[in-house]
Structures are given as structure tokens and as C-alpha cells.
Amino acid sequence: MKFTRLVPLLLVLFLIALCLTVLQGYNLVALPAAVPLAARWLFLLALGVYAARRRSLTFWIVVSMFVGAELGHDFPTQAQNLKVLSDVFLRLVKTIIAPLVFATLVVGIAGHANLKQVGRMGIKALIYFEVVTTFALFIGLAAINLSKAGVGVNNVGMDTEKLEPVKQTTADIILHIFPENIAKSIAEGQVLQVVVFAIIFAIGLAMVHARHRRPMLELAESLSEVMFKFTNVVMFFAPIGVGGAMAYTVGKMGFAPLQNAFYLLLTLYAALVVFILLVLLPIALLARIPIKRFVQAIAEPVSIAFATTSSEAALPRAMEAMESIGVPRRIVAFVMPTGYSFNLDGTTLYLSLAAVFVAQAAGIELSFGQQLVMVFTLMLTSKGVAGVPRASLVILLATVASFNLPAWPVFIILGIDAIMDMARTAVNVTGNCLATAVVARWEGEFVDNYVAPPLTDLAESDSELAHSAH
């Protein structure tokens, strides 16, 4: 059977299994219990065959979610023993965060020591990034507090030892930001303290002579690259960890959490639409960006980002698209890559939603001040890790643990993370493209009536440059 022909077969099997399960559940048809059970497992078997041929980690995570849910439904007592698989995965993820955040922040700050030469453009870009991501943060907070997608999850028996929030005064919160011993901060998973140490370290590194800065910067770059690969290795265990977590959750609590996850998905998509209409569109109008040309230019890179859930896959086409509407190459070359570290609008909005969802699912009431501290921590720790697979999962798990929140709601989110990742990645790319155009306009270098040269002219000019170089 051809690879593509499995898709309609999967849909048919899924509908058959669903219909039989519903008919049995409502006693509409007298069916032996083994019939819908066999239909569901046949669908899962076909889904596994399809996943084996695709060889996609994201799809394997989806398959493991279905299998885990089925195990939790059919064998609830035995499924609860699979929690050890999710605990192993959680421990591995927690080992990533401190070295990864430290290395990426040091490279991101000290590696841009040439901001002095870039001058006003660098300052304007950073101001723009932080203002827009703050808007995204507040829209995310408003959306999740209005929808209350995490409220109502029955959390009886789920990590009850972690369900008491930490009582802290304002002085305690301020002191908690600053590390007294970086090794202790890493061991205790105090993410914000690691961030503060990394920022100060990077500033100090940027101030020293190039002869002293280069070896340490190369070490940080090497560490970040190794941690990227470390993350890739750990993520191969993600399907097993997610399957174990889903089996445990469904075995303990039934299917109610999946309904809350669906509400969270709707909340995210609605919040992203609001962010585009109320933040990005007015910014584009104020900066006098030609909306029609801009939308036409970014359609392809945004589609690539949505389909692949990878901002990096869309980066080359996004840079070309911005040049094609009149943004000078030197501005594109600086603002676009910097935005990938500091202007993750979709990810920031998602993290604010997800963090509060975890608290709501755990039954913990967080004041607005506590929510702000947590999501600002998430916003800081997400800087510089745009290229890490499942970076949002890594950041979210580490941060909720440091705020004494349970981890099990994060695995509920992970079940629909692939669908949410598509939308937030597309918004990340859209926001970075707009940032490039806005900074160009702010610098007075946006060419309104720019006409991109044909591809043949570009090829001829490249050959002429190569010939003159010889």
C-alpha cells in the first residue's frame, strides 16, 4: 500500500472506532465490549504504521498520546504505573535548562558587542522587541483569565504534595531574583537566578578586551551547540514520556483534562488573532508599512513556519521577502536574527497562557502580581532558545517547577502542543518580519516604491561580481 493511501484509511478507522465507542457508551446499540475496543486498537495499529513510515518525532508524540490515552482508559490501574516514564523524561528535560539558558544568553548578549557600531538601530530594535512582547504577554494573561481553560480539572491525587503555593513578601520576591551561589541556583532549578547571572556575566564579557572575550565566547557557543544536540537526544524519549504521562493522567482522572486542553487550544488561537489585529496591524499602519505588499511578501515564509513549526526553516525566505518590499539588507541582516532571540511574540503569548493554565489545572489561585512575576520569568528565559526543538516545553517545565507548581498539567498541554506550535511559530515569523520593516522605517531607510530586480538580473549581477572579484 502506498504511503499516501494510509491517510483516508486512518480517517475511516478513527470514525468507525469513535462511532462504536459512542454507541456503546450511550447504550444505543447492544455491542460486545470487545468490538469498540478492537476497533480502537486497530486504528492505533494503523496509526503506528503510518508514523513508522513518516519518521516524524512530532507525529510519534501524537501517536503516543493516543496510545497512552487508550491504555489509561482500558487499564487504568496498570497505566498509573507508567508515570515513571514521564518522570524520567521530566528529569532529563530539567537538566537542559540551566546550561542552555546560560550559554544562549551569553552568546546573544556578548556576541552582539558590535551594537556600538550598529548604534541607534540596535537600541531601537531592542526597545521595539520588548514593548511588543510585553503586549503579547498581557494579551495572553487576559485571554487565559477570561477563558479559565484550566479550571475544573479534577486533580484529586495528582501531585498533591506540590499544590500549596509559596507565600512570599515583596522583599522575598526581589531577593529571590538575585543568586547568592550560582551552583546552588542551578541545583535548585532557580531559572530566574540563572538568567540574572548569565546577563551580568555576558555584560562583563562584552566589556573585556577581544583577546580575553573570544575564548569565553567560543566556549559559550560550543556549550550552546552541545546543549542543542543534547536536547535533540532527550526529545527522542519524548514520545515514551508523553505516552506514560497521558496513560497516568487518563488512568487517574479520565478524559476530562483533554477537554480543558481543547479549550486552551481555542484560547490560544483567539488570543493570537487578537494580538495580530490589536497590536501588529496598528503598528504596521502607524509605521506606514504597505499592508497588501507586506502580506503578499510574508505569505510564503509564514506558510513554511506554520507547516514545519520551525522559525529557522522560514528564515531565509523571510529575509528575502523583507528585502523585496524595500528593507535594506543590512537592516534585515541585523534585525531578523536578533528578533529570533528577543522578539518571539507568539511564544511569549503561548507561555503566559500555558503557565496560568498549569496553575488553574492544579487548583492554585495566583494573584495578578504572581502571574506577572511568573510570565516575565518565562519571557526572560525564552530569550535565545528559538532554535531548540520543543524549547517552550523545556522553559515551561523548568519555570513551573521553580514556582512550586506541579508538572502533570504540562503533559496535558503537550498532547496538543504540535497544533499550538504551528500558530505561535507563524506569529513569531510575522512579528519578526514586521519588526524589520518598522526599524527600517524608523531609521528612515524604508524604500516605499522599491521594485525587486528579476531573478535573471540577480543572477547576472552575481556573475558580474564574481568575475570582477577574480
TrEMBL record:
<dbReference type="InterPro" id="IPR018107">
    <property type="entry name" value="Na-dicarboxylate_symporter_CS"/>
</dbReference>
<dbReference type="InterPro" id="IPR036458">
    <property type="entry name" value="Na:dicarbo_symporter_sf"/>
</dbReference>
<feature type="transmembrane region" description="Helical">
    <location>
        <begin position="393"/>
        <end position="416"/>
    </location>
</feature>
<keyword id="KW-0812">Transmembrane</keyword>
<keyword id="KW-1003">Cell membrane</keyword>
<keyword id="KW-0769">Symport</keyword>
<dbReference type="InterPro" id="IPR001991">
    <property type="entry name" value="Na-dicarboxylate_symporter"/>
</dbReference>
<dbReference type="Pfam" id="PF00375">
    <property type="entry name" value="SDF"/>
</dbReference>
<feature type="transmembrane region" description="Helical">
    <location>
        <begin position="96"/>
        <end position="115"/>
    </location>
</feature>
<feature type="transmembrane region" description="Helical">
    <location>
        <begin position="230"/>
        <end position="250"/>
    </location>
</feature>
<feature type="transmembrane region" description="Helical">
    <location>
        <begin position="349"/>
        <end position="373"/>
    </location>
</feature>
<keyword id="KW-0472">Membrane</keyword>
<keyword id="KW-1133">Transmembrane helix</keyword>
<feature type="transmembrane region" description="Helical">
    <location>
        <begin position="127"/>
        <end position="146"/>
    </location>
</feature>
<feature type="transmembrane region" description="Helical">
    <location>
        <begin position="191"/>
        <end position="210"/>
    </location>
</feature>
<feature type="transmembrane region" description="Helical">
    <location>
        <begin position="29"/>
        <end position="50"/>
    </location>
</feature>
<feature type="transmembrane region" description="Helical">
    <location>
        <begin position="57"/>
        <end position="76"/>
    </location>
</feature>
<protein>
    <submittedName>
        <fullName>Glutamate/aspartate:proton symporter GltP</fullName>
    </submittedName>
</protein>
<feature type="transmembrane region" description="Helical">
    <location>
        <begin position="262"/>
        <end position="287"/>
    </location>
</feature>
<keyword id="KW-0813">Transport</keyword>
